[in-house]
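Quick illustration, no need to memorize.
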Amino acid sequence: MRLRNIPIADEKIASSPFCIHDPEQYKGSWDRLFHNNNPIHIEIGMGKGRFLLQLAQKNTDINYIGIEKYTSVLFRAIQKLEHMEDDKIPSNLKLLCMDAENLTNVFAQDDISKIYLNFSDPWPKKRHARRRLTSEQFLCIYDQILNKNGTLEFKTDNHSLFEFSLEELTASHWNVDACTYDLHHDPILCQSNVMTEYEEKFSSIGNPIHKLIASKHAK
């Protein structure tokens, strides 16, 4: 899918109070940004931000960082926050424009408690497998920023990507703690489910949603 370029996106991100600027300064000490020691959950590829916004509003004792590498997409998330009433904007939500390949530049070991991956780009061609956010290469990066009890939650409607993800997790010695091929009909995993824009779209046309929860291997 080709993204429409928004000329003012870079400028908007650089000046937005919702975005994290110079994130490297907080590596290992994110309490300086959030002014508390609450756990930090991140969503990689946050899109327009509805999923993480709902979580932040619901769970005020958790800090959330939405990560998006495409400026034109992050711009839409900023707009969404700007159009909210001030007392509705959660103070525990921040946005960060960066590529997930560089996560270890801004997060230290144990900085993160949970990673969300929602409807990530499947990169269907075999030669692009390394770019998938559940590839062995990215799992190694996550391993370097999650704390010892950290978890990874992944949702997709792409069956091939889901099978690939399970294989990569096993090969990387992660534990798959929960797994379903039909989230919306799973009596346990659907209880606390927060839907994303893509999830709502795909499920409305009959696509079953797959979900897994994985935890780090023992050191």
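The chain has a mean pLDDT of 94.
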